[in-house]
Amino acid sequence: MEFVIFVRHQKKKENIDWKKRKLLLDRIIEENRGKYAYDCIIPFSGGKDSVFQLNYLMKEYKIKPLLVRFNHGFIRKTIQENVDKILKKLGVDFIDFTPNWKIVKKVMLESFRRKTDFCWHCHTGIYSYPIRLALMHKVPLIFYGEPQAEFNTYYDYNTDAEGIDLENEERFNMIRTLGITAEDMHGMIDTPEDPVDKRDLIPYTFPDIKELEDLKYMPVALGSFIPWDHHKNTEIIKKELGWKIDELEGVPSKINQHGEKIECFMQGTRDYIKFLKRGYSRVSQINSLNVRNKRMSPDEAKQINEKYDGRKPPSLDIFLEYVGLSEQEFNEIVDRTVIPPHEPNYKSNEIAPKTWDFDQWYREDNKEK
């Protein structure tokens, strides 16, 4: 898949008329400026991409946005400090929504058991909730950051009309839900012994399409209109806003100077699961981008990948506490979805070092002693 994305990346540089795309962005902004309570809504985690898109749109167009964060429950201290600083520097309105933690734990366990991906609540919530806020505030235009064509093969830069990467219901169901709708999830976690109110699953549900069509909603990716370069974007927000990077569990800092995935303290466990299933993980992913953009040779990337990829993260213990599993049970669940010919080594004793803020992460020990 990485080769397919690499070829598409080359075509992006060679075949897309970015001047024409920028003019389209100009038109969309002007069509929405000053007509609603806000010119647009920006889903905003405080990570590098959402900070860049906010900074770019405010600097280039002087817009009035509403920032919306779906707080997955794992926000790290440096990211929160970045958010607080940037809100004050740029002067913007910000809504921070944190869902019911008891429901989050239930859906984490259920989606991990069924899909070996415990982030169903995050995948669905960070996309559906800002669109719900758009309906609530009657604001049609929603700006996401990088387009899907940057990192997967489902879509390319010309999939949608005029090359716009639209975050619609079809895409939500194909990419975000892991094949589990909120209605499905309710049926899975609702029990007579521990009933769950259906309303607790609303934040993870795509809004009514008829209401969205009446609003003429337009959820687009900024990266559909301007060339997207993570490294350059990060350098801009460091310089202009004082945005700070942080350590990423299991990844040497020297290869992650652009702050990939630093906002979530469960990222190390997500990456570890991927390594057990597929034989590669975050170190390889970051270095594939470095090689693609000629920032690193393939040989150098291979050496780093072999040295660092796949180490067990300290955050695994925290995850197991949250969902009430033993490590043996965790391994048995992962083992059902391992992709041949890879054969994971569950007995590896190499553990990644703790990040500086590890002891600040929320602990909830539900394990049997």
Low-confidence stretches: 1-5
Give the termini separation.
43 Å
How many distinct beta strands?
A: 5
Radius of gyration: 21 Å
Q: Tell me the strand order in the biggest sheet.
A: 1-2-3
Q: Please identify the structural class as seen in this structure.
A: mainly alpha
- From the spread of the alpha carbons, the general shape counts as globular
By CATH, the topology of the largest domain is: Rossmann fold
Number of domains: 2
Question: What is the helix tally?
Answer: 15
Proportion of residues in extended strands: 5-15%
Largest sheet: 3 strands, parallel
Named at the architecture level, the CATH assignment of the largest domain is 3-Layer(aba) Sandwich
Secondary-structure element sequence?
HHEHEHEHHEHHHEHHHHHH
Description of the molecule:
The protein is mainly alpha-helical. It folds into 2 domains: 2-224, HUPs (Rossmann fold); 247-360, no CATH class. The protein contains 15 helices and 5 strands. The protein has helices at residues 2-15, 18-32, 48-61, 77-90, 101-115, 120-137, 169-176, 182-189, 209-215, 230-241, 267-278, 282-292, 298-308, 315-323, 327-335, and strands at 40-43, 65-70, 93-97, 141-144, 218-221. The chain has a 3-stranded parallel β-sheet with strand order 1-2-3. A two-stranded parallel sheet has the order 4-5. Helix 3 packs across helix 10 and helix 12 (282-292) runs antiparallel to helix 13 (298-308). Residues 1-5 have low confidence and may be disordered.
